[in-house]
């Protein structure tokens, strides 16, 4: 924690609504899966190089978990206001101008995440359903052949839908904040 920052700056890092608070809570719990990923990766190294008995499941499981957590990390970054921004410009402008930049950011993010959610829906639908509509999860094609590709595409779709709602809620809050200062 930066000791030179003001309390108002720490308020920006706090969840702004119930959805953000839930994402932070879920994200903190899911972060423990990184430890599990390290443990199974260590297990694989041990089995492969010490006992000459490699596994067929560790690499795909670790990749799936890492990819899934990376996607959820985007929601977490948005919920805690830790997303990427051009601070060189952002820090040079007045707080009022920052609010307008936030509105612009949220509008563009809403459009982007909405379009990406639609695109991910088509990918997930193809990974979960046959062309004639029967449920069939896309698998990896490996010897183990888990349905991780389909599951990851489903997670991407769900997270992009949640991100779209997050952008909408943040946009509404930012517009309300601008209106309060106008009154």
UniProtKB/TrEMBL annotation:
Keywords, in A-Z order: Cell inner membrane, Cell membrane, Membrane, Transmembrane, Transmembrane helix, Transport
Transmembrane segments: 21-42, 62-79, 100-121, 150-173
GO function terms (MF aspect): transmembrane transporter activity
Membrane topology: Multi-pass membrane protein
Coiled coil: none
Domain of life: Bacteria
GO CC field: plasma membrane
Domain Tripartite ATP-independent periplasmic transporters DctQ component span(s) in chain numbering: 38-163
InterPro entries: DctQ, TRAP_DctQ
Pfam families for the chain: DctQ
Location in or out of the cell: Cell inner membrane
Known role: Part of the tripartite ATP-independent periplasmic (TRAP) transport system.
Family listed: Belongs to the TRAP transporter small permease family.
Quaternary context: The complex comprises the extracytoplasmic solute receptor protein and the two transmembrane proteins.
Protein's recorded name: TRAP transporter small permease protein
Native organism: Photobacterium halotolerans
